[in-house]
Amino acid sequence: MPYTDILKACALTAAETAGGSLRVTTPVDGSEIAMVPVHTVADAEAAIARANTAFAAWRKVPAPRRGELVRLLGEELRREKENLGRLVTLECGKILQEGLGEVQEMIDICDFAVGLSRQLYGLTIASERPGHTMRETWHPAGICGIITAFNFPAAPWSWNAALALVCGDPVIAKPSEKTPLTQLAIQKICDRACAAFGADAPEGLIQTLIGEREVGQVLTASKDVAVVSATGSVAMGKAVAADMAQRLGKTILELGGNNAMIVTPSADLEMAVRAIVFSAVGTAGQRCTSLRRLILHADVYDTLVPRLVKVYEGLTIGDPLQKGTLVGPLIDATAATAMTRALETAQAEGGTVHGGAATLADRFPGAAYMAPAIVEMPKQSAIMHTETFAPILYVVKYTDLDDAIALQNAVPQGLSSCIFSTDVRETEHFLSVQGSDCGIANVNIGPSGAEIGGAFGGEKETGGGRESGSDAWRAYMRRQTSTVNYSRSLPLAQGISFEI
Ligand code: UN1
C-alpha cells in the first residue's frame, strides 16, 4: 500500500499533512510523508481555555455516562485497528504485529475504563466522635496534559486519556514531534466518538497540540492544567517535573528503563530464549520496557549465549510493514549513531560484541536499520547503567542469586525486571522486599509487553508514576475528605474543650 494511502485510510486530510513546517519522515525508508502544520504558543493557550470551559460541563456529566463516550471510542478503535496500526508502523517503524498490538492496548484500556466509570469508589471511615461520619469522595482533578514519545505514539495516550475522561478531566495531547500523524489520526477517531455521543461531549474535551518543546511547556506552565502525564526520556521528565514543581502541579512520569532478566539454573531455557528475543529486539529495542541486561547463572551461560547468538543471526530485519519481518528500523540516524557509540564504549569496557552492524543501506539508504547486538560483558560496567534506545543486549554472569539481584538493582532506572526459574524459593525471593526494586517484576515472562490491567510504571529515575490499570485512576482525580455531623452537639476531635 502506498504511504499516502495509509494516511488517507486514517482520514488525514491535506490540511493536516501538507503545507506545514514540521517535516515528518517514515523510518521505513527515510522518505518524507508529511509537512504538518504546528501549533503556536497562543494556540496552546487557546486550547487550554477551551478545555477549561469543557471541564465545567464535563465534570457534571455522571461518570457512567462519561464511560459511554469511552465505550464509543473503543468501538471506533475496533473498526480502525488495521488502519491505525499500519500508520503506527509507518510513522515509528515498529513491525505491523506490534503496531496492531498498540491499537489493541488502546481498545483494552477503553474497556477497562468503561467498567471503571461505575467504580470510582471512595471509603467511609469510622469517626471518633458520636453522631459523626467520615467519607472520601473522588472528584475530577481538571485538565490533563498528555505528553507522549515516538516509540509508542498511540497506547500511552489512551492509558491516560481513557481514564482521565471517565474521571471527568478534559485531555490535551502533545505527541512527539517525530510521530504527530498517529495522534492526529487518534484525534479524528475521538472527534467521531464525540459526535456519536452527542451534545454532552463539550467542545474542547479532547484536543491535540502539535509542536516542539515550547508547546509542551505551555501545558506544564499553566496553572489550569491540573495533571501532566509525561512519557519519554529521563531528561524530558526532569524538565517537566521542574516546571510542574514551580506551581506544585501533579505529574505522572513514565521515563526510562534499564530492564534486566535473571536466568537461574532451574529455568526453562526454551521459554527463556523466546522471551529474551522478543523483549530485547521487539520494537527494535526501543521500548521503555525492552530487555537490556541479561544476568545469567554460570551453569546456563555457555548453553544460552551461543543459542541466542544463533537466533539473532537468523532474525529477519527489514520493512516493518512486510509480513514476516521481526526487526524494523530505528527511528532515525541519530539513534543508529547512539547504538554504534554504545557498542564502541562496551567494547572499550571489555565487552565482546556479536552483531550490531548497520544493514540494508543499499535497499533503504535513507533509513537506519541495525542488526540487534548481544554483548558479553566481563562485569556490569558503566555503559550498562545507561539506557541506549536500541537493540543492545548486555550479558553478564553470576553465581549467587543475591549478587544477581544486587546487579539488577544497581542501575538508576527502576521500570521492569524478571526472573526465569522453576524454583519457587528463587522466584518468591525475587518478588520479596529483598528482591527486585522495579515497578514491574515478572516471573517466567520477559520485562516488556505488560497488560493494561496492572498499574504500569516504575521507581527511581523511571519517575514513580503509575498509569493504566489497578488504581492508577486516582491520579486523575482529587480526593475530598468529608466529616459530617448529624448530632445535636459539636464535640471537637482529640477531646479538645473550647467553651465560649
Ligand atoms: C513504552 O515503551 O513506553 O509493556 C511502553 C510494554 C507495553 C508498553 C511499553 N505495554 O512493553
From TrEMBL:
Annotated catalytic residues: 254
Cross-referenced Pfam families: Aldedh
UniProtKB keywords: NAD, Oxidoreductase
Top-level EC class as recorded in UniProt: oxidoreductase
Top-level division of the source organism's lineage: Bacteria
Annotated InterPro entries: Ald_DH/histidinol_DH, Ald_DH_C, Ald_DH_CS_GLU, Ald_DH_N, Aldehyde_DH_dom, ALDH7A1-like
GO molecular function, one term: aldehyde dehydrogenase (NAD+) activity
Coiled-coil residues: none
Family affiliation: Belongs to the aldehyde dehydrogenase family.
Protein name: aldehyde dehydrogenase (NAD(+))
Organism: Flavimaricola marinus
